[in-house]
């Protein structure tokens, strides 16, 4: 089959997948799998070749990162149960004050709590953000809303152990130690710069409280407030964060050991991300069991398992799509279109992820799908897989809008009109996506 037809069928498969999700409203799992089947059959892999590629792609990605995703989500669920996030944000507020709180929330949430999935993180922090907003001199609701969006979304796809970051790193074979370090190098400046730019827009008159905010009585937030009520006997902040800190430190040590050529022994074993995250989960579980009760600790684990089920399936099917693309020979075709300049594949990755997010409405699905599309060609181009992973995460942030459940949940929790939600949720994620892309391109000059 000619290169042109392979490219054409690949484009049809991807566009059809997006349209199935956006227009027909089919679940991403079904749409991605349908796209994989079409691509395999249309490019001549045959019935057996297509099914083998789909099965092997799913199995390969699950064997490499399935447990990592599970442990990352479980750790976040247990940290939520022990009140670690609430204690941290309250402590930071006491130190930095209300006016600096948007910067504090956006950086702390995205860099320290990426393991807590976006919806859970937003529900936990929204009551805190609403209580701080009136203390900010101007447009406090908009400023705190922007901070909560950044804190919830950035860590998900750029910082380990965020579920999206774990999945994309696994698809592209990026060491998790590298993903953690360089993800933080992109995330923290992105949070600070985006918050600053957004506050400048507020000063220029972007926000109108009368039109962009709803009266508190128009929407109920009792459920979200209840979500952050904690029993009296929770551990201190330092103890609450200890399981997460231990896991991150072990992953970082493992990354350093690998660079130093240490591939066996205690350092390599305990620094393995699988072992490090497992230790973090066990520590968080024992802490929740001791601080709350065995039943509540079990409920937190059960909640985490329910959350990670969909992520695992989407990640696995993303691996299936990548395997089918590999079998079509697209790797060699696309490699010929990329120059040795690192900017072209990075921008292409960003565009693919951004378009997918705008169409699909899921940050993690967009990042994972972009990663699965680019995974087959990363070995054939002169661009570090780490940079491709970061570019996919950056693009996947672009424009959370009305086709996202996160958009509507954010509107309800912050008491905003649709117009106000567009001015916060959508505009801020657009800014963050562009700012983070600039940082990734800057990293490409030295990585």
From TrEMBL:
An example Gene Ontology molecular-function term: gluconate transmembrane transporter activity
UniProt key word Membrane: yes
Listed transmembrane segments: 5-24, 30-49, 61-83, 145-172, 178-198, 239-261, 267-288, 308-326, 346-374, 386-407, 427-446
Keywords: Membrane, Transmembrane, Transmembrane helix
A cellular component term, taken from the record's GO annotations: plasma membrane
InterPro entries: Glcn_transporter
Name of the protein: H+/gluconate symporter-like permease
Organism the protein comes from: Haloactinomyces albus
